[in-house]
Amino acid sequence: MASIKEVARAAGVSTATVSRVLANSPHVRPALRERVLKAIKELEYRPNLIARSLRAQQTTTIGLIVSDIRNPFFTAISRAVEDTAYEEGYSLILCNTDEDPKKESIYLNVMRDANVAGVILSPTGPTAAGLRELEAGFAVVVIDRSIPDADVDMVLLDNVDSAYRLTRHLLENGYQRIAAICGERSTTGRERCAGYEQALRAYGLLPTAELVRFVPPQIEAGYAAALRLLDLPEPPEALLTTNSLLAAGALEAIRERGLRIPDEVALVTFDETTWASLVQPPITLIEQPTYEIGKTATELLLQRVAEPERPTRRVILKGRLLVRGSSAPRVRCG
Amino acid sequence: MASIKEVARAAGVSTATVSRVLANSPHVRPALRERVLKAIKELEYRPNLIARSLRAQQTTTIGLIVSDIRNPFFTAISRAVEDTAYEEGYSLILCNTDEDPKKESIYLNVMRDANVAGVILSPTGPTAAGLRELEAGFAVVVIDRSIPDADVDMVLLDNVDSAYRLTRHLLENGYQRIAAICGERSTTGRERCAGYEQALRAYGLLPTAELVRFVPPQIEAGYAAALRLLDLPEPPEALLTTNSLLAAGALEAIRERGLRIPDEVALVTFDETTWASLVQPPITLIEQPTYEIGKTATELLLQRVAEPERPTRRVILKGRLLVRGSSAPRVRCG
DNA sequence: GAGTATTTTGTAAACGATTTCAATATGATT
DNA sequence: AATCATATTGAAATCGTTTACAAAATACTC
Questions:
Q1: Which of A71, A211, B173, B215 has the fewest CB atoms lying closer than 10 Å?
Q2: For domain A57-157+290-318, is the CATH number 3.40.50.2300?
Q3: Is the omega angle on the peptide bond into residue A262 within 30 degrees of 0, that is, cis?
């Protein structure tokens, strides 16, 4: 690989001039610029990004730390972040914490050590212990789950309202005994639960502790929680889960108990997936604007990198209710 | 951030000694080592990886270029690669080509510019144009799809045999008129098609051109191809697709035509997904050992980084046939 | 055409580590 | 105690850029 020195020699100029041509500085005579460009082309020169980063004390890489890469929601986010970052000339380092705060902390340090320009993080918990250890200057955008105490940019869903609308939809379709399986340890799960309870109250119903479960936001936990709910002496008429993995687990449980959807139990959830419209009946859900979340988060991050002192922002996006067969108007049995 | 110089000053030694302590060199007196370690701890010193990379002319980052991040197969691979890389002290740069050879070429250059130690690539086509432009020394492991002419390490599935077994399973269950929807432009699609045709021949049937479609390996294309097959004057009794996205599209088409599975049309595919066992009937498929593919690819890559001249290897892993309801023994109608 | 202002160019010092080589200290051997 | 071998240490070069500063070249003014 040719270096800037060789280009300089070939063009008969100093490395400073080559560097200026590279940076499109106006203070280079056209004749010289031509010579330099010619040398660059002939030697197939490409700047060494590491040297550049060392000098600039910053890379053109951003980090994305997701809490579960198996969750299609985060896959969609990754795609959007990668797209947007690439357009801006940044590449993406991806890490997966598997909902483990220790891994989160480790990866934040990895990011710091890699001198990434900034990090987009879906935190494993509402405090983000690892975040506080970082210097103040470290650019971070939090997505999906809020960290109430942290003064960082965030891109979130209107969780309370979305859950409210989802629950109201069930209530309006005649379901009364509605259970909720919520992701534990995240504000997202709590907020969606709050929206669910608000809707119940608005319709004159009292939330029952027995019908609300906080579990790890994963398939196995959704399956186990759903089984226990379905086995209750007085089982729920509808199940609301707060993400697609919990929904997959719940669906598995419903199938295992041989129950018909929605006659015997309705099912609604968050997050659009390939399968939600393929199962029968298709699943009613709140669709998140995943691409927009990822894109917005990346843009916020790059803005903060450019201007570290700007006031932090909190962008709240609206979910969209997609009504499908799994919550069809209830036909009273008996 | 403290630098090695400050540590050296604090410990009253030269930077060389600090560096030696860092590298666990045996040629440092215990007393000095203690002093250095103390200074490191007190200053919360962490080596600057960029400076290290510049000097070493190599990073501790590997690249993963996948052809479609929405495909759960590649999500699973990413997870495995990320896991394995992390264990070895490497981090992961992720890129998504969307089956676009241009993006592939661009990203390979991005990787080169980023001085990654090596790249794991699922190529968009069987020639990998971008690959040849790279210097010979660039460490690459190809996964999922082979590049017949390239002398690089590869981790692949036994595509022909897997497709053979999948098709044979259909034949043994009484299906005769079997259509195949294959991913175009990849050896994977071609090989799976070959296995399918071999099985037909082994059972005394002649492959029909009409029943074999090569399309982009994506949901929409699977949907369109399946619709056209189902609308044939003499529609197929079974559909075989070569990945889960094509299967999702095919299933959508089957649903749209209101056909029962497997009575009116059976469906089998490649790749396990969340939904394959949740739809009804659940889908018969060949499961790939995704975690092992990703892990093996990463290990091969790091071995090659350590020893660039070692002979290239081609690891072929076996797929596992999971028999489910979508291919239940055929009940002849009429 | 001399003097000044402006533009263009080059020199050399960073950035933060690793490593070669030489110098010094230590220990072993006689 | 002198000599030699060996183990420790440090000075300085290096990786490939960018950029502050100085120097040189050019343009402008009177």
A1: B173
A2: yes
A3: yes
Spell out, as residue ranges, where chain A has pLDDT lower than 50.
334
- pLDDT tens, residue order, chain B (334 aa): 799 999 999 999 999 999 999 999 988 999 999 999 999 999 999 999 999 999 999 999 999 999 999 999 999 999 999 999 999 999 999 999 999 999 899 899 889 988 999 999 999 988 877 787 777 778 999 999 999 988 999 999 999 999 999 999 999 999 999 999 999 999 999 999 999 999 999 999 999 999 999 999 999 999 999 999 999 999 999 999 999 999 999 999 999 999 999 999 999 999 999 999 999 999 999 999 999 999 999 999 999 999 888 999 999 999 999 999 999 999 765 4
The alpha-helical segments, DSSP class H, found in chain B are 4-11, 15-22, 30-43, 49-56, 72-87, 101-113, 129-133, 159-172, 187-202, 219-230, 244-256, 290-306
Domains A57-157+290-318 and A159-288+321-327 share a fold: yes
Q: How far is the CA of A31 from the C1' of D24 (A)?
A: 17
Between CA A120 and CA A125, with CA A124 as vertex, the angle to 5 degrees is 115
Beta bridge partners, A178, equal A238
Between CA B83 and CA A193 the distance in angstroms is: 33
Q: Which CATH superfamily is domain A4-47 in?
A: lambda repressor-like DNA-binding domains (1.10.260.40)
Determine the Cα–Cα distance for residues A269 and A248; give it in Å rounded to an integer: 10
Q: Are the beta carbons of A109 and A130 closer than 8 angstroms? A: yes
Question: Between helices B4-11 and B30-43, what is the axis angle to 10°?
Answer: 130
Q: How many CA atoms lie within 13 A of B44 on its CB side?
A: 6
Q: Which residue has 């989802």 as its token pair?
A: A166
Closest nucleotide to A29's CA, by C1' atom? C8
B22 touches chain A (CB under 8 A): no
Q: How far apart are CA A288 and CA A33, in angstroms?
A: 49
The DSSP call for residue B134 is S
Rounded distance, CA B311 to CA B172, Å?
42
- CATH architecture of residue range(s) A159-288+321-327: 3-Layer(aba) Sandwich (3.40)
A166 SS3 class = helix
Q: d(Cα B190, Cα B327) in Å, to the nearest integer?
A: 23
- Residue B69 CB: number of other CB atoms within 10 A? 22
Question: Which residue type sits at A296?
Answer: T
Q: In angstroms, rounded to a whole number, what is the distance separating the alpha carbons of residues A220 and A249?
A: 6
Distance from CA of A178 to the nearest CA of B (A): 22
Sketch the domain layout of chain B as residue ranges.
4-47, 57-157+290-318, 159-288+321-327
Tell me the pLDDT of chain A averaged across its residues: 94
Chain A residues lying within 8 Å of B95, measured CB to CB = 82, 86, 91-92
User: Residue A54: which nucleotide is closest by CA–C1'?
Assistant: C15
B50 touches chain A (CB under 8 A): yes
> Cα separation of A150 and B159, whole Å?
50
Q: Are A238 and A327 in contact (CB under 8 A)?
A: yes
